[in-house]
Amino acid sequence: MKPSIRVIPFMALLATAPAASSAQTAADSASVNAFYGEWFGSARQGPERYATFYAADGMVLPPNAPPAAGRAAIAEWLRQAQAASTYTVRPSGIATNEMRFLGSDWVVYRSTLTGQRIPKAGGDPVPFETKYFDLLHRKDAGGWEVVYRAWSDNR
């Protein structure tokens, strides 16, 4: 299914979702946390590994850049972003701001990552705080995949 077609059921789910953010079960919540635990280190394993955590037609929506749709495009986007980066990221913490189940197979996950960006050319570290918005879908075989990811810096 194309991401643009998924927006209609997503909007319908949002309209009917309860205001409170609660997991279906403790096991569901734990499975989402386990997914993120595995995914967070994947970028260091290479762009192709990182892209495997996305749906086949998943999408990243980076700030100030065009979207990258599909695993191959996501891997290429990450490869280019890593090559163009002028700093190294040193995370200091991540906070889950919201985990909202929109039925048994969809989750909205908001988080905030804090840390420092260390200039590769030398210089003082710069603190950062970045907020993320992810839409996850439960795979047929179990586990989760990212359908959409968007983010922006707070500082």
**How many runs of DSSP E, i.e. beta strands?**
6
Helical/strand content category: alpha+beta
Overall spatial form: globular
Q: Determine the number of helices (DSSP H or I, runs of at least 4 residues).
A: 4
- Architecture in CATH? Roll
Strand proportion: 35-45%
Arithmetic mean of pLDDT: 88
Keyphrases for this structure?
single chain; 155 residues; alpha+beta; Nuclear Transport Factor 2, Chain: A; six-stranded mixed sheet; 4 helices; 6 strands; 40% strand; globular; disordered N terminus
Describe the model.
The chain is α+β, with helices and mostly antiparallel strands. It has a single domain (3-14, 22-87, 96-108, 135-153), classed as Nuclear Transport Factor 2, Chain: A (Roll), CATH 3.10.450.50. The protein has four helices and six strands; from the N terminus they run αααββαββββ. The protein has helices at 3-16, 26-39, 47-51, 71-84; strands spanning 54-61, 68-69, 87-101, 106-119, 126-138, 144-153. Strands 2-1-6-5-4-3 form a six-stranded mixed sheet. It is globular, with a radius of gyration of 16 Å.
Explain briefly what this protein structure is.
This protein is an alpha+beta fold. It has 4 helices and 6 strands. Residues 1-21 have low confidence and may be disordered.
SSE blueprint and pairings:
Elements: H1 3-16, H2 26-39, H3 47-51, E1 54-61, E2 68-69, H4 71-84, E3 87-101, E4 106-119, E5 126-138, E6 144-153
Parallel strand pairs: 1-6
Antiparallel strand pairs: 1-2, 3-4, 4-5, 5-6
